[in-house]
Design brief:
This protein has 185 residues and is mainly α. The chain has two domains: 1-97; 131-185. It has helices spanning 2-21, 31-52, 57-83, 86-109, 113-150, 154-162, 169-182.
Length: 185
């Protein structure tokens, strides 16, 4: 099991190194930089899969899922850095949540049969809650954007809506509805 952990750490270090070398963190890449980043992510995924093949069955499956999740995250981050839009950032958050769920589900598969169901249910609840929060943030952002183009008092509305940003889930929805109703919308 110790060898498995060290191979995961090596994979994570390799992914970090590739991302830093390709300047994936730099906003608004050129198209060629974007394509190069995506190509490097694919090469890294292939290398990680090859490293995973040396492991026994259960750790191998988890290792492959973790490599795929890292590749999904990397592609989403590359898209954010290339497009730089709010939509790409939201999509990246959703990809990250789904990647976390993939890994959690694979980790659940390594547990005993009685614990698997509980583990998967917990992972699903966490995933659904986080996706709902991102969707609520997307709706609030769309409302704020619409308000900015529709009414002269939209600057005040944006300030009021920004107070809702710190909240999550139903609290954020209630805050947004309250701000909009106080402004007569």
């Amino acid at each position: 099991m110790c060898g498995y952990r060290s191979s995961i750490l090596a994979i994570e270090a390799l992914t970090l190194m590739v991302c830093s070398q390709l300047s994936i963190g730099a906003p608004l890449q050129t198209h060629s930089d974007y394509e190069a980043a995506r190509s490097q992510i694919t090469v890294t995924l292939d290398q990680q899969r090859a490293a995973c093949n040396a492991l026994s069955e259960a750790p191998k499956n988890l290792c492959i899922v973790e490599a795929q999740a890292a590749a999904n995250r990397g592609r989403a981050e590359a898209t954010v850095n290339y497009q730089g839009t709010n939509r790409s950032r939201i999509n990246s958050q959703m990809v990250n949540i789904r990647a976390d769920f993939m890994v959690a589900r694979a980790r659940c598969a390594t547990q005993s049969v009685t614990m698997q169901s509980e583990c998967i249910n917990l992972a699903q609840v966490t995933r659904d809650r986080l996706l709902d929060e991102v969707r609520a943030a997307r709706r609030a952002s769309a409302l704020a954007s619409k308000a900015n183009t529709d009414t002269p008092g939209s600057a005040q509305e944006t300030v009021d809506l920004s107070q809702c940003d710190a909240l999550v889930g139903s609290e954020r929805d209630a805050c947004t509805a309250s701000v909009l109703s106080s402004l007569g919308q």
